[in-house]
Amino acid sequence: MTGPTRRTLVTNLLCLGALGWLYGGDLANALRIRAAEVSSFASPPSAPRAGVVLGLTVVALVVFAMGLLRKQPEGFKGYRLLPILLVGALFVDLVVAEGTAPLDAPERATVALQHFQEGAQRLATLEAVPSEARVLQPLVDTLGPAPYQVHGVPVGGYALQVRTGCEGPLRETSGARPGTLLYCVSRDSRQAWVTLVGLPAEVRLGAPALFSLRGEPRIAVIRPRVPEEEGVAPDGEATSIPP
Known about the structure:
The protein is an alpha+beta fold. It has helices at residues 6-35, 47-69, 81-97, 105-123, 133-141; strands at 38-39, 149-150, 153-154, 159-166, 180-186, 192-198, 205-206, 209-210, 212-213, 216-217, 220-222.
């Protein structure tokens, strides 16, 4: 009995390190997400799946160590468990990833804010921007789930708060839950500002704050339509809009 070759030893050590790094990290992140007031993950890691993989890793390591101590020959099947486990776990992750969002959390928040802005802009008239929650809520319902979790529990869909008589965008979260769009309309109803409660793009765990990028809050602005959008030229003459 000569034991495994150096190549087999190195392969098993590399697989052990990869399993510990990948799934130990996933388990640590999952526990941190549960403890955090707010977290920002498009697809939070699964603590049960990471725990199962780590448990199987321990079993495979014990079998490998027993074979090594007993100087089992190169053909010992216990020397293959760690590589097989790594390949199998990565395959499961690949299958699970096919059903998850391709964008990360800040990108999803940016897209949601842009879609809401575009929808609200279409609702604006020549004189004013929309200012009623019942008019804006259908836009919110189309945005899908927000990429935020509170103590590990997804917040679900986006929410909406409408305020009037504003002089600028709201920069305070005001106790709103993550995923809330703060829609603030000016006194003359000629402008509205939209901010999002969540986390800064550079932060994954923390307290609720405005969604921002490099320290600057992301603000969407809604204004009345210009005359061309209504099919009327600036001088009052009708214009034709191609079909």
